[in-house]
Amino acid sequence: MKNASNYLDAVLSMEDDAITIINQHKEVIFWNEAAVQTYNIKESDIIQEQITNFFHDDDLMVLKVLDTKKPVQGTYHRPRKDKHVVVNASPIFTTNNELIGSISVERDITQIVKLNDNLLTTSTELNELRQKVYTDTEENPFSRLKGNSLPLQQTIQLARKAAKTDATTLVLGESGTGKEIVARAIHEASPRKEGPFIPVNCGAIPEALFESELFGYEGGAFTGAERKGKTGKIEMANGGTLFLDEVAELPLDMQVKLLRVLQESIIYKVGSSSGKPINVRFIAATNQNLEQQMVEKQFRSDLFYRLNVIQLTMPPLRQRLNDVPELAKLFLKQFSVQYEVPMPTLEKDAVEALFQYQWPGNVRELRNLIERVIILSEESVIKKQDLLSFFHSSSAPSNLAETANNHSLVQEKEAMEKKRIEEALEQHNGNKTAAANQLGISRVTLYSKLRKYRI
Question: By its UniProt entry, which NCBIfam families does this protein fall under (predicted)?
């Protein structure tokens, strides 16, 4: 029996976890080397001593199980202010079920906790630094609208002015022209930049859910409603900006309620008779002709005029073809990093093909095309024929080939003339007199050509 005890002592001494055994009188009868290392208390100093001489009663799990006679498993514990452990502890009974002591096995996780604390601190500092870097490098939120073409720069100039006010803004433009990007830029360049920017796609909300989504509802307002109620998108944007994308899709009854919010700055939740004041800046966007919809009684004229305090029109890509090479290069770099592949270059004839296409899907279509090129192409240099194979439109490749092969001399001359006029206007910041002098034509002739080329 004595040998068995020696064997057991040897096994317990080899454990990496601190092991403590006390008797029913709270005296320490076993203290292994791991316990010595964990608590810096020599075995000779603690054996046969009251464990409470070295630790506070409340800090000892081994005492707790001695009192409760119930084991604990995998419990986080702090026996000292400077120690963090995961402890398993159990009472010890004789074969006659007599309590004679308790044992605890404690795994020291102090370094792990400290590392985790440092990680949390570092993460917080990193987030603060990231925000500072973002603020420093993104002083101009409109820098995300890439391109130097005159139509885009004119829109950006107007958007900058809109950002300085709380005026309701209506952003018009074809699908894929960047309406949400300019809306976000207006918000981030405005005094409301610290507040939320809440986008709502009006075309993606079922008609029956519009009111609860926009205005929220009180608890139990209708069958299936959450008991605590729900906060609507308008209230979520309080102190910031609400972006209503595809606003032409709003049902007529919701147009009336939105108009009331714009007029009174008060919202009424579904199921509530009391209004709540809100402080929200509204930006709406659509690719539809709202004036035509007003004629057809599809869109309320009073709401249109409320939304149309400042109107921005995002130019389609075909009106800013000079920006295509810059955008293409940007997307090549972006997707080569995302998909971890070498960045290819565009051959001159491929760039010319991009110029010749009309881009009905606008910047979004160009972006998707470049993403397909990065994913599917294995060439380091993208030539025109390579590029044509990645167009989804069945007519695009043939149109481009036909344009490249059969471009008439008149069309080439007009394209070049339009490009020269745009460049001259850009160089002189839109000054038409200076641009006409540079081009060697009169202002009357310049205005005529501006109308002709819809510049």
Answer: sensory_box
Q: Which CATH number fits domain 409-452: 1.10.10.60, 1.10.10.10, 1.25.40.10, 3.90.226.10?
A: 1.10.10.60
Does residue 358 register a pLDDT over 90?
no
For residue range 89-107, what is the model confidence (pLDDT) as tens digits? 899 998 888 999 999 888 8
| Cα distance between residue 168 and residue 174, in whole Å | 20
pTM over 0.90: no
Phi, psi of 172 (to 5 degrees): -105, 155
- Taking only the tens place, the pLDDT of each residue in 66-78 is 888 889 887 777 7
The secondary element (H helix, E strand) that includes residue 172 is strand 169-172
Q: Span 2-111: which CATH code?
A: 3.30.450.20
Give the pLDDT band (50/70/90) at residue 47: very high
Q: Do the strands 216-217 and 197-201 form a parallel or antiparallel pair, or are they unpaired?
A: unpaired
Domains of the chain, residue spans: 2-111, 143-315, 319-406, 409-452
Q: What is the CATH number of domain 143-315?
A: 3.40.50.300
**pLDDT band at residue 408 using 50, 70 and 90 as cut-offs:** very low
Is residue 165 classed as helix, strand or coil in its secondary structure?
coil
CA angle 136, 138, 141 (to 5 degrees): 150
403 three-state secondary structure = helix
Helix (H, G, I), strand (E, B) or coil at 123: helix
Residue type at 144? R
- Domain boundaries 319-406, corresponding CATH code: 1.10.8.60
- Is the pLDDT at 395 greater than 50, yes or no? no
Q: Count of CB atoms within 10 A of residue 200's CB?
A: 23
Please choose, from the candidates 162, 127, 106, the residue with its C-alpha nearest in 3D space to the C-alpha of residue 282.
162
Residues in a beta bridge with 217 = 230, 270
